[in-house]
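Much of our argument rests on the idea that a fold can be written as discrete symbols. The record that follows shows the chain in one-letter code together with its fold in token form.
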Amino acid sequence: MTTIVAYQPGAAGLEALRLGAYFARSRDSRLLVTMVMETQSAPTVARVDFQYNSLLRQQLMNHLEEAQQDVPGDVHAEYRVHDARSVPSGLVELAESESAYVIVVGNASRGVLGRISLGSTTNHLVHSSPVPIALAPRGFRTTQQDRISRVTAAYGGEAGKSGLVVAAAGICEEMNAELRLASFSLQPRNVPTTDLEARSKARASITAAVRESAEPVLAEVRSLPNAPKVGETVVGFGEEWADAIEHVDWTGGDVLVVGSSDMGPGHRVFLGSTGMRIVHESPVPVIVLPGEAVETLVERAEEA
């Protein structure tokens, strides 16, 4: 299997390289670093266009040559300029032709440090790609010793029905990582001091209900041929999404898995408003799974 990195010069490209190497090392996969050269839909014989395209191609190849210096030596990497009508369509074409299991993309140039910010290409991909998309928080760093140790599935009532949890377990199997479920609950602002005890009881009740709801799908996970270790199901509480996500404990080896909305066309990725908020506020790398990838991961997990 192949990990594809959509490279671009600058900090965003460096973060994508780091995350791509992180995935490739954790899954023992090949790393393919690419830049897409946008081509005209109809060929032209104009000499000026030929010269421009030649210069552009050489520039992209120079960027990829520079990228080689930032890829860790323990990861097998290849570098390629891919021709396509657009960057998003080119990345999907390449991912499908190379049987890639994920496309890794960088942040927008102006984002909050430690959080994920989507640029135009990334935003297009997370709303249209049939291949999983991985994103890193701005400023993401790893070492050659770092590997993914825990996969957290963003869990709601529909997550079990959609297969997301079992798909996340499949990722755990392939990366030898622990599975954890996390749910997020928004709480009202300005709770009076006299109501703090009641709020504490309400949180305990919500947590118990989430864990009870998750137990059937976790039982399904435990019955898999190569079932991963299953950690505690957690619930993050807060007045805002950022607070609720931050309320959950995160470590250096974590990645968060988010499922696509059922509103997506076919089996492609389509993030609803809740999924988008979770992605934006995540302090750890995120994998967005389209329906087709969920089905594939579930099949592999059940047949392992």
Q: What stands out?
A: The CA atoms of residues 41 and 85 lie 6 Å apart. The chain has two domains: 1-141, 148-304.
